[in-house]
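Worked problem 6 (solution included).
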Amino acid sequence: MRLRKAREVLATLPLLALSLVFLHPILWLADSAFRQPVDIFSVPPILVRDPVAAVQRYTLGGFMQSFERWGVGRALLVSVVVTAAALALTLLVCSLCAYAFAFLEYPGRDAMFFGILALVMLPMATMIISTFETLRFLHLDNHLLGLVLPYSLSPMGVFLLRQFYVKIPRQLFEAARLDGASHLRIWWSLIVPLSKPALAALATFHFLWVWNDFLLPLVILRSERLHTLPVRVQVMLSMIYQPPYQAIVATGFLAAAIPLVLFLRYQRQFIEGLTGGLQS
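Solution. The predicted structure is:
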């Protein structure tokens, strides 16, 4: 028994060491967000050299500077509004599309589904010019709606939900149709409640993409008051002379902490929905 426990401990140590390697950037960011500029890049870190003094020297100066001088509060609000609106539209659009691909029969259904799968392999950068030209034609460039609409289309989300829907017993769908329920009624009252794990996985996955995306807001939004959080960080980094390192680190920690907390809160639903949707 003792030999078995010793082997388990020895097998766990490499994993623990590897986890510390991956956690180091997050831990450094969390510690540096409350540091004075002189302590951020100190070698060895002040937290290692003198832990008591390090804790006593924590400050909120970086957060105050980022909000008062660099407009991080407005950028945070814009990111929250854009992400929430895009997430709501994505769940609605992808869920309805996946329902049509999973339960309805019509000519060209499989060809359309394979076309959506082909879009999954195209990175956003390859479509950025056509997206910008379309939004400019619709007079939605430099407008938050012009940023929300492209985010609301997710081929990966349609694929994920469709794979989950086909696992739902078709007898439930046919019974609801025999009872006279419309497609919208079946989707809202039957399919959506049964697919909460897949919807949670899609919400988590899409939230991380929209929240961290930098390219599309940079191209679509020209006004400084419409900057999202990643674009605002880039503006702060572009200060060639005396970059505000303390404010940059504090803003970076804020941008990373919000999705991290949400992921830790809903990680079980995310894993269940993702594995359930991708299994054949």
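Discussion: The chain has two domains: 15-59, 76-278.
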